[in-house]
Every structure is written in structure tokens, then in C-alpha cells.
Amino acid sequence: MKVVEMISVRKEFPGVVALDNINFSLEEGEIHGLVGENGAGKSTLINILAGVFQQTSGELRLFGKPVKLSSPSDALHRGIGVVYQDTVLDPFFTAEENIWLGREPSRLSVLKGREIRSDTKRLCDKYGIVVPLGIPVGTLSVAKQKMVEILRALSMNSKVLVLDEPTASITQSDTDNLFEILKNLKKSGISIIFVSHHLDEVFNLCDRISVLRNGCYEGTFASSELSTRDLIKLMTNRDLVDQYPKRASEIGEEILKVSNLNVARFGLKDISFEVKRGEIVGFFGMVGSGRTELMKSIFGAHEIDSGEITINNEKIRIKGPSKAMRAGVYLCPEDRRREGVVQDMSVIDNLTSPFLGTLTRLGVINSRESRARAGKVSSELKIKAPSLKTIISHLSGGNQQKVVLGKWLLGPESRVFIFDEPTQGIDVGAKSEFYRIMQEIAKKGCGVLFVSSDIRELLGIADRIYVMRLGRITAEFKRGEYDQHSILENALSDSLAARSEKMNKIGLLFQKYGTILALIGIVVFFSIMTETFLTSRNLINILSHISMLTIIATGMTVCMIPGDFDMSIASVASLSGVIVTSLILKGLGVFGSILITVGMGALFGVIAGILITRLKISAFIATLALGTIATGINFMFTRGQEVYGIFPDSFLAIAQKRVLGIPVQVFIMAVVIVVFTFAMEKTKMGKWMYSIGGSVKASFLSGINVRLLRVVGNDNLRRPSRPSPAVF
Fold it and tell me: Which of 214-228, 313-327, 492-506, 627-641 has the lowest mean pLDDT?
């Protein structure tokens, strides 16, 4: 039975055809591989199935019935679960909170915590998936986070599970474990779409394979019908005789030497190695071994505690990336999207930004020279972009990686290039191109450091391989002496994953409770310095003075939890005081005056929310304007004078009356804090607002009404951006 069927599906974006005449089907209880180069259309196809995009034409059928998925929530309710390449979880939420996000069991909007935990345990037992419960998922390994995402999809009774590059950032043992889980899910009747650039994984796991190329459907084949070479040709329309082409280059004198380097912050201990001109030196290790931290330390992004770095026979103290760049050391970081490029800037701006000083005269950029240099690099690297002014986020992963490299090729003097996982998440054709580029750089007399989790490409490309484990170099292998078993043996450590998770947990807990710890520290400090600090009289005085500010700050916190702030809050609070006192003096009554004033404050919040969500005005500008209006209204009422009059005792009691020697406003403050804490921690709306603050995308893809909550929270979060046409 065909669970999913796409018939002549076409998807267009302005000026771009992402998918053209796609005919794809998924059988019940099948693991179906989906492959293609970056830009082939895989992500667009997935996003149509996920309800993020709607097809321009053609028909989508689920279980034989035509459907048009209007949103991610619609897709989830119809039994389609998607696990994206980039983890879409709230890092501060526990596994169970992420799994049921947007669908939490509750009564009168109050969460049923015990039921959430028991349902999660039943789900884990049903599918044989083990994940730690009760701790933030941000403290877990990438592999366990993937398991949480799979459980979230299965919690919707999904009959279709889509996995986009699930093995891109996990170890081989975690990959093997994942495959066993997927095979068990297949036996239970769940249909799986498996997207991967690792073709050996596709052959080992999948029953059938569908191929996309340039947005077109190239066919579906049984895995047994194809060889790796056949599949590569279908994907790229060209023969790749050797996946890891090694070209000989002349290895010269030493160009980089690292001696006894130590960085206690990241556990790097006594690191020593060297790189010669024309040499590609590989670094292999498991996640958490310290490879990335070492490369960033050499580039000056992390401060070195001790040790020496010698470049071209000159000892250099690298204090920051700018010093490394002047020494001719360049880094292509592991996280290219966040650290390698500026997503909202154009190709030309990204290419020229590191060396604008060489492209300016009297502080003015020479546009013609910028275009000429950027165009030359773009041509050399074969960057596929409509123009140099194309926004970088619209490019495929492989082309973004080329831009990361291209900006360094504009440098005045290049000596050492550091590539940290340069082929992660890019297709086989782009990988081959990157291997060629690295070897061309080495051939010009530069040294190349090549970090990779894929041992096969290191064996194929590197002249030497260093192995890291727990912040140390544990072995060195020279070409001709490579032994894959020995390399893996030196890289593996039973305590590695536990150590990595422990460090993540400590970091997240400190981030969550750091403010409270700081306040405790302040109290302790003043208690030691001042004898009267902890006396009841002093504490009551402090609480009395901060009560009003705390109530206002609680309102501000409602804005800050989803991720922003409100510039109008002080002006609206001042206006509220004027309104309530003016109404009382006019004889309206205390209760009625307070009610009208609260309504006025709510009106300002709703107007701000509409300006931000509907008219797309920046929260800073919208709330600043409303604050100015509130100040103007305030002045109209008071003419700059204080409000005087005789107020009822019931109103004055709020500020003057004491209960058990404690001012009434302190009790009001306590009630506000308790109600606020309960609402944010124990109700659906509170959890959803926390979720938006932690991950807008996770909230959106969990079916939460992000726009409505933005009005409630009055924040500046943009609607979660849908994948751009570049990710096709």
C-alpha cells in the first residue's frame, strides 16, 4: 500500500523552480532513501510533506486520499513526523517537555506533569528507545537529541517518519544504534524516508532509493539494482571514478608547529604537532575529543593558557583571530551557518568582509575592486549563485562552504588553512570538489589542517593523521601506515560521551540559575560587610522599596521570556499611576479606577503586539513610539504637575497599611510573583512562551500559534523563517 504519493508535483519560488514534475511514492513498512546533490530539491520535498510549503501544482496523497497540508501542525495530525538535520528542540526543556510540546496533557490549562512523564516512559518502552528524562535536552549528546525528536514524531502516532541527515553529527556507534531502532520501527509498520549524503548508509539501510537532480525526478530503484558509482552518476550526471582523489604534492619545510599547548577551559593538554608546506594533516576524534576547540585556539578564538605556536619559523602569540589572520592562518569553522558566514548579507559582502581594509580608500569601499576580486574567487571556486548580491542564506550548504573558504583566498598572504568538518552535510559532488580545492591549496605551498569525523575521507586525502581523545593527541599515523582499526581504537573512550554531557549539563544549569546564584552572593557579601543588613527592619524596608519595581519587572519578564523587551513599560506605568489617581479623585471608586487602568495597560500591550506581528514593525520602534505617546498623554493630564487630592482610605491602605508589621504592597508583590511563577511553569501558555524563547522554530514546527503568543508577550521575534529556496 502506498502511504505517500506525489503525482507531478511542482514547486515554484519567485524566479526559481525548486521541484518540477516529481513522482514519488512511499510504501507501508518501507525505508526509502532520498538522495541528490545540494540544491537537488530534497529539502523542498521534505518541507511539502511537513506542511511548511504547499506545492504550486500536482497532487499529494496520503493513504490513497488527496490532501493539501496547510501547516506543520496539519502534517503532524495526519501522521507525518519530520526530524530535521538541525536539531529542532528547546535546549532548556526536558525530553518529555519537548516530546509533548504543543500537545501537553492538562486540565483547565494547568499541566499534568505526572501524566507527561508516565506517557513518555510508555512511549520509550513501546519503541525501545532510551533517553534521559528530567534534564534539559541541551545537556544531551546530539545522538540522544535525535532520539528525542524521533520520539516526538512517534508520539503523534506517526505512520510516516522523515529523517533529514540524521547521522551528520553523530558517532558510528550512535549511527549503528539509530539504524537498529529504524529497522524495528519498520517492522512495526512505520514508513521511513531517509535522507543522507552518506551513500553507504543509504545502501545498507534502505529498500528503495529515489534520486533528485536539479529539482527533477531521476527515478526510483531497488537498492540491489545500483552500485555506488551508478548512484553518483544519477545524482551528478557525471562519473566520479574515485570518491577520494589523492594528488601528489611536494612536501616542503615546516610551516606550523604547536608545542605543549594547554587550554584548561576545554581540557586541551600538552598538544604538540607540526605541519609542513604542501601537506594535508588530518585530525580525527569523537565528538567532544577537543578537535574543534584546538583549531579555534590555534586561530586565536580561544585564549591559550600555555604553549607555543610557531609559524614559518617565527614564534607568535596569537591573541585573537585578527592576529592569526595577519600571520596567514585562516579557519573554515565547523558551524559554517553561525560562524562562517553572515546569513543576512550578500555573497560579495561575505567574501570581502575580512579584508575590507585592502579595498578602501579614505574609509570608502572601492566597489569596482570589490566586485572584481569577489568575482574572481567566485569563478575559481565555481560558486553557484544568481549574482554576487544574492543573500548567502539562499545558497546551498556546499556553496556557503565555498564562500567561507573564498573570503580567505582574498587574504594578502596565506600560510595555513584550517578546515573543520568542511564536507559535513554537503553532497558527494561538492565533497569531491572540496578535496580538489584543499589539494590545490596544499600544492601552492600552504599547510592544511583537515578535521573530519569521516575516517574514510581522511584515509583518502590526508598525508598524516593525528588522533585525539579527551583533549589529548593519542596517536599519529603516516600515509602508507594507516590502520583504520588502530585509528578508531585510539579515538574511542567509554567516558567521552558522559564527560561531554556532564560539561553541557553544568553549563546549562549555570546559565539557568546563574542570576539566582549572583543574588545570593550579593546578599552574603552585604551580610558580611554590614551587621544590620539581615535585621528584620532593614529587610522589610528593602522589600517595601522594591515591591513596585518587582511588579513592573514581572511584566517585563513576560516580554523577555519569549526573547525581547518593551521600551514603553516605564511610560505606561507612569501613565497608569496618573490615570488611577485622576479617576479616583473624580469619584469613580477604587475598584473601578483600578480596573479601567489595567484595561488601559492591556490596550497598550495589544496595540504593540499588533504593530509587531501584523505590520512587521520592530518591537524597539513600536514600543518606543507607544512609550512616547504614553508620556504625551501623561503630560496632557498633569501639565507636568503632581496629582494632589484626598484619597479614600481603601486606596491609601495599598501603600500605607501593614499586616504583621509588613507593608501590604510586599504581600501584593509576593502574590504577583507566585501567580506569575505558577502561570509560567505550570500552564500551557507559560510553557509555550518559554518554548518560543528557547527555539522559535521548534515552537512553530510543534504546532504552537507563535503569532498569537507574540501578541501576548509583545516581543520582537520574527515569524520562524521558512526555509529559503536555496535549501532545495
Answer: 492-506
Name the average pLDDT for the chain. 86
Sheet arrangement for strand 306-311: 268-276, 254-263, 306-311, 314-316
pLDDT number for residue 722 = 37
Q: Cβ-count burial of 631 within 10 angstroms (0-12 exposed, 13-18 middle, 19+ buried)?
A: middle
Percent residues over pLDDT 90 in the chain? 39
Mean pLDDT of 353-375: 87
Residue 629 CB-half CA count within 13 A: 12
Decide the pairing of beta strands 110-111 and 106-107: antiparallel
Report the alpha-carbon distance of residue 503 to residue 257 in Å, rounded: 30
For residues 197 and 165, the answer to whether their CB atoms sit within 8 Å is yes
pLDDT per residue as tens digits for the range 198-245:
888 999 999 999 999 989 999 999 999 999 889 988 988 876 656 677
Grid coordinates representing 596 are: 479601567
Q: Cα–Cα distance between 556 and 608 in angstroms, integer?
A: 14
**pLDDT tens per residue across span 495-543:** 444 555 555 556 666 666 777 888 889 888 988 888 888 888 888 898 8
pLDDT at 713 over 70: no
β pairing state of 329-332 and 464-469 = unpaired
Q: Is 83 exposed, middle or buried (0-12, 13-18, 19+ CB in 10 A)?
A: buried
**3-state DSSP percent of the chain in helix, strand and coil, to 5:** 50, 20, 30
What is the spatial distance between Cα 500 and Cα 144, in angstroms, rounded to a whole number?
12
Geometric angle at alpha carbon 183, from 179 and 186, rounded to 5°:
140
**SS3 at position 718:** coil
Instruction: Say how far apart CA 198 and CA 179 lie, in whole Å.
Output: 13
| Strand 31-35 to 191-195 pairing | parallel
Each residue of 24-40: pLDDT tens digit? 999 999 999 999 887 78
The pLDDT value given to residue 727:
35
Nearest Cα residue to 164 out of 694, 693, 701: 701
In whole angstroms, how far apart are CA 311 and each of 271, 298, 354, 408, 419?
16, 11, 21, 17, 17
Digit-coded pLDDT (tens) for 254-311: 999 999 999 998 889 999 999 999 999 999 987 778 899 999 999 999 999 999 999 9
Cell 512609550 locates to 627
Residues 6+ apart with CB under 8 A from 695: 88, 89, 90, 91
Q: How far apart are the first and last CA of the chain?
A: 28
Three-class SS of 136-156: EHHHCCHHHHHHHHHHHHHCC
How many CA atoms lie within 13 Å of 502's alpha carbon, on the beta-carbon side?
6
Please say whether the beta carbons of 245 and 227 come within 8 A: no
Establish whether domains 2-236 and 251-328+413-495 are of one fold. Answer: yes
DSSP letters for 268-323: EEEEEEEEETT-EEEEE--TTSSHHHHHHHHTTSS--SEEEEEETTEEE---SHHH
Please tell me the total number of residues recorded for the chain in this structure: 728
Architecture of domain 2-236: 3-Layer(aba) Sandwich (3.40)
Mean pLDDT of the region 404-430: 85
> Yes or no: is domain 251-328+413-495 CATH 3.40.50.300?
yes
3-state secondary structure of 76: helix
H/E stretch holding 82? strand 80-83
Q: pTM for the whole thing?
A: 0.67
Amino acid at 417: F
| Domain ranges for the chain | 2-236, 251-328+413-495, 342-409, 529-713
Note every long-range contact of 142-148, with CB atoms under 8 Å and residues 24 or more positions apart, other chains counting.
142/87, 142/169, 142/170, 142/174, 142/287, 143/170, 143/171, 143/174, 143/177, 143/178, 145/87, 145/89, 146/83, 146/87, 146/170, 146/178, 147/178, 147/181, 148/89, 148/95, 148/98, 148/99
